[in-house]
Specification:
Distance between the termini of chain A: 47 Å
Distance between the termini of chain B: 38 Å
Number of domains of chain B: 2
CATH class of the largest domain in chain A: Alpha Beta
Number of helices of chain B: 8
Number of domains of chain A: 3
Number of strands of chain A: 12
Oligomer: heterodimer
CATH topology of the largest domain in chain B: Rossmann fold
Number of helices of chain A: 12
Shape of chain B: elongated
CATH topology of the largest domain in chain A: Heat Shock Protein 90
Structural class of chain A: alpha+beta
Helix content of chain B: 25-40%
Order of helices and strands of chain A: HHEEHEEEHHHHEHEEHEEHHEEH
Largest sheet of chain B: 5 strands, parallel
Shape of chain A: rod-shaped
Order of helices and strands of chain B: EHEHEHEHEHEEEEHEHHEEE
């Protein structure tokens, strides 16, 4: 039921059809009932009239001819006999069904005293009526109930079906038209975070829909304001921290103990990295860097060299001339984060670039413990780190993968976490070939 | 480090007194004569009063901001300027360089890198006294180097990423083509980079640079190693 009548249109049509059906059955019943009553009344009146007519005819004849005449006048639902005594016993099992006839007899035979009319019901189908003649003899009539033949109802069924069909057609159209703004609401709600720009809903349509659109727009504004405020606050804090950090660096220069100086420099670098990552993350897709053709090998080589200079183990295996259409700075940040992670958590970063017709693939593998399959999605969430042991010593902010994924996604690529063949984590970055983007 | 008879004179413009003091102290400790002022008004007054060889200019200043001051300065002077920015915004950097800044550093900067940049700018200024100050591009063997954005493009027009050290090295080579540059000269050009505290720095950087501009077996040789002397840049270099 739920599956089949899931949409508003389907439910409306269903409700309308049930409604029409019920109303129709009820009115049909009422109509039939009234019709039956009318027909019965007419039958009773005719029957009573015939009975009284037979009585009048028989009454004028000689007693010897009466029985024959009564027989002559019989026919249809009526059989008449003449006798000296009354045959009918008043009341009987089906008296209720014959009340109509009794009443008609009383009305039409108003000239007769009530005791001259005796109606005895044998059952609902058969009744005996005795009418007294002026000379004290009786006319006994047997009446069979006539079935009021039900009329053919084809016409009714046809008109109902046509009406139902019309209702279905009109309601599908009307409901479709009415729910269009609702579909726009759903679309706008989905686009709320996917797009940098807000989509204001047109506040039009029926009042309820206008209300929904207005409420949605207000909610959207509130959310945007909230995010903006938080973003600005965090950005301002991050930004303001840069000056004291610069001072700290200058002060570290005058520290005589080389070990202390180098430890301080390391701390400062780490703080800087956190600030940079926070700002990058906050900036997100609002990065206005333009996409340009770039040599992927050279870009990765710079990062690998830098990682080596910083004391890490990193290698690159890339064919020359792999060209990508992308934002150089964003890509560099993304790959730098992935290489950093590989070295920090996996001891080394081995990069391998392959280009095929389907796209460019950069694989970054390490020799660490890897990440359990169940947690691979979670590590992309900002500020999520797997367990304390993974982060205590190495620092970092849990933003690296989130930033990398956002940057790669903005280039039309994907990041997948896999198991490296020899153990460890394999990060697979797939990027589209430039021709596809340039076209 | 011995103090030269005439120390280069650097003017530090930053409204943050403590930071300004620290920068001045650091520069003085490294053989430069440094003075400091807190805003644009004081900067213009100081420049009118005495001669400086270089200005370290913070972008965010009370009153007139750094970009505006730079534009004013460039209207009548080719005095070398290094911008300091806390924003790290790409657009500010480009605008600053287009307005004629010689270099820029994002806060929080490494003091040694600031020193290296100052020396590089001073040396370049001395080498090209006669050339107009506007930033200019270099073209060689189909390649193009854009000093504003520090970007290198291959003959196919594809961006080839360079590390800061590789860029400095290439720039030094391009400024003196067909001349033998000693390791000391090149080291001077590329020194101060945070991640290069080793002696073989130049040879390592050079091999990295060559890997990028001489890709593959068949690529034409651009940098010639002169045994016992240094390196020489072979292609014809034009400025565009």
């Amino acid at each position: 039921m739920r599956r089949h009548f899931d949409t508003l249109a389907a439910r409306t049509v269903l409700l309308l059809l049930i409604g029409i059906g019920l109303v129709h059955v009820a009115s049909l019943y009422a109509y039939q009932h009234a019709l039956t009553n009318e027909v019965t009344r007419a039958n009773d009146a005719r029957l009573a009239e015939r009975m009284l007519t037979i009585r009048r005819s028989v009454m004028r004849l000689m007693p010897a001819e009466r029985e024959a005449a009564a027989h002559e006048l019989s026919g249809g639902p009526l059989e008449a006999h003449w006798s000296a005594a009354d045959k009918a016993a008043p009341g009987g099992a089906g008296a209720g069904d014959w009340a109509g006839l009794a009443q008609q007899l009383a009305t039409q035979g108003a000239d007769l005293p009530p005791q001259d009319i005796i109606l005895g019901a044998q059952d609902s189908h058969l009744a005996l009526v005795s009418l007294r003649l002026p000379d004290g003899t009786w006319l006994n009539l047997t009446a069979f109930a006539t079935q009021s033949a039900p009329q053919s109802q084809h016409g009714t069924v046809l008109s109902t079906s046509l009406m139902a069909l019309g209702v279905v057609l009109v309601s599908v159209l009307v409901v479709g038209w009415l729910t269009r703004p609702l579909r726009a609401v759903a679309q706008a709600a989905r686009a709320l975070y996917a797009q940098a720009d807000r989509v204001s809903l047109p506040e039009s349509g029926p009042r309820e829909v206008r209300d929904v659109a207005q409420a949605f727009n207000e909610m959207q504004d509130r959310i945007a304001k909230l995010i903006d405020t938080r973003t600005q606050t965090l950005a301002a804090v991050s930004h303001d921290l840069k000056t004291p950090l610069t001072r700290l660096r200058l002060r570290a220069e005058s520290v005589a103990d080389a070990r202390v100086a180098s430890a301080m420099a390391g701390d400062i670098r780490e703080m800087e990295r956190m600030l940079d990552q926070t700002l990058q993350h906050l900036r997100g897709e609002r990065d206005d860097e333009a996409a340009r053709p770039l040599e992927l090998g050279a870009l990765l080589q710079t990062l690998v060299d830098e990682a080596q200079d910083a004391g890490g183990t990193a290698s690159l295996e890339a064919p020359p001339g792999v060209i990508l259409l992308g934002r150089p700075l964003a890509l560099k940040r993304a790959f730098a984060n992935l290489i950093d992670n590989a070295i920090k958590y996996g001891g080394e970063a081995r990069l391998r670039v392959t280009q095929e017709a389907s796209g460019i693939v950069v694989e970054i593998s390490d020799s660490g413990p890897g990440i359990p399959a169940t947690q691979r999605e979670a590590v992309f969430d900002p500020f999520v780190r797997l367990e304390a042991s993974r982060s205590k010593e190495t620092g970092g902010f849990g933003l690296g993968l989130a930033i990398a994924r956002a940057a790669i996604a903005a280039q039309g690529g994907t990041i997948t976490l896999l198991d490296a063949p020899g153990g460890g984590l394999l990060v697979q970055v797939s990027l589209p070939n430039p021709s596809k983007l340039a076209a | 480090m011995s103090q030269a008879p005439s120390q280069p004179r650097v003017l530090v413009v930053d409204d943050e007194a403590e930071l300004r003091g620290l920068v001045m102290g650091f520069l003085q400790g490294n053989g430069l004569a440094a003075s400091g002022v807190r805003d644009g008004v004081e900067m213009l007054a100081a420049l009118a009063r005495e001669a400086f060889d270089l200005v370290v200019l913070d972008l965010m200043l009370p009153g007139e901001d750094g970009l505006s001051l730079l534009r004013r300065l460039r209207a009548h002077s080719a005095l070398p300027v290094i911008l300091l920015t806390a924003k790290g915004e790409e657009t500010d950097r480009i605008v600053g360089l287009e307005l004629g800044a010689d270099d820029y550093l994002a806060k929080p900067f490494n003091p040694r890198e600031l020193l290296a940049r100052i020396r590089a700018v001073l040396r370049r200024g001395a080498a090209m006294e006669s050339t107009p100050h506007e930033a200019q591009g270099f073209a060689f063997a189909g390649w193009r180097l854009d000093p504003l954005r520090r970007e290198l493009f291959s003959p196919e027009g594809v961006l080839v990423d360079l590390s800061a050290g590789e860029y400095d090295l290439l720039l030094a080579l391009l400024e003196a083509p067909n001349r033998i540059l000693t390791r000391e000269q090149l080291l001077d050009a590329a020194r101060g980079r945070e991640a290069a505290p080793f002696d073989r720095a130049i040879d390592v950087q050079m091999s990295r640079l060559r890997r990028k501009i001489e890709p593959g077996e068949n690529a034409p040789e651009m940098v010639k190693t002169v045994r016992g002397a240094g390196y020489m840049f072979l292609p014809k270099v034009t400025r565009a």
